[in-house]
Amino acid sequence: MAKSDVTIPTLPARNLDETIGFCGLLGFKVVFRVPDPEGYIIVRREALEIHYYRWPELDPASNYAGCYIRVSDVDALYRAFSAARLPARGIPSLGGIEKKFFNMREFRLVDPNGNLLRVGEEMEKPAMRRL
C-alpha cells in the first residue's frame, strides 16, 4: 500500500454548526463546507480528517456510527482533547486512555451526534523469545 493511501471516516451530524463548534474545541478547522440543505463538512486537525454529513433526524442516543483512528502519539492527542473539559460519560464525552488486549492504547470520544470515535496507538510488541 502506498504511503498516500488513507481512510477517512464519514459520520452523521444532526446539526453541522453544533458539530463545527465541538470540533473547534478539539482543535479541528473546517476546510470544506457544502451549505444546507445538502450539508457536508470536512474538518481537519493536522493529519487527522473527518467528514460529517447532515442528518437532521439523527437521535444521538441511538446513533451507532463510529470509527477508529490510529495515531502516532495517543498521549499528546488525549492531552489536547482534554483541554475541552468534556465529561467522562454521556454525549458528548471523553474517556481516559486504556490499554487494550489487542495491543493498543486508546481513548474514546463521543461527539454531540453520538458518534463513537476510538483513538489509539499501537503498543510496542514484546520481543519474541526463542525456545
Shape: globular
* Unreliable runs: none
> Radius of gyration in whole Å, from Cα?
16 Å
CATH topology: 2,3-Dihydroxybiphenyl 1,2-Dioxygenase, domain 1
User: CATH homologous superfamily name?
Assistant: 2,3-Dihydroxybiphenyl 1,2-Dioxygenase, domain 1
**CATH architecture group name:** Roll
Give the strand content: 35-45%
Q: What's the CATH C level?
A: Alpha Beta
**N/C terminus separation:** 34 Å
Q: Give the structural class.
A: alpha+beta
Helix count, DSSP H or I runs of 4 or more residues: 2
Query: What's the average pLDDT?
Result: 93
The helix-strand sequence is: EHEEEEHEEEE
* Overall number of strands: 9
Main beta sheet: 5 strands, mixed
- Oligomeric state of the chains present here: single chain
Explain what the structure shows.
There is one protein chain. By secondary structure, the protein is of the alpha+beta class. It has a single domain (10-55, 64-122), classed as 2,3-Dihydroxybiphenyl 1,2-Dioxygenase, domain 1, CATH 3.10.180.10. Helix content is 15%, strand content 36%. It is built from two helices and nine strands, in the order E-H-E-E-E-E-H-E-E-E-E. The strands form two sheets. Strands 5, 6, 7, 8 and 9 form a five-stranded mixed β-sheet that branches. The protein has a four-stranded mixed β-sheet with strand order 1-4-3-2, with helices on one face. It is globular, with a radius of gyration of 16 Å. The relative contact order is 0.20.
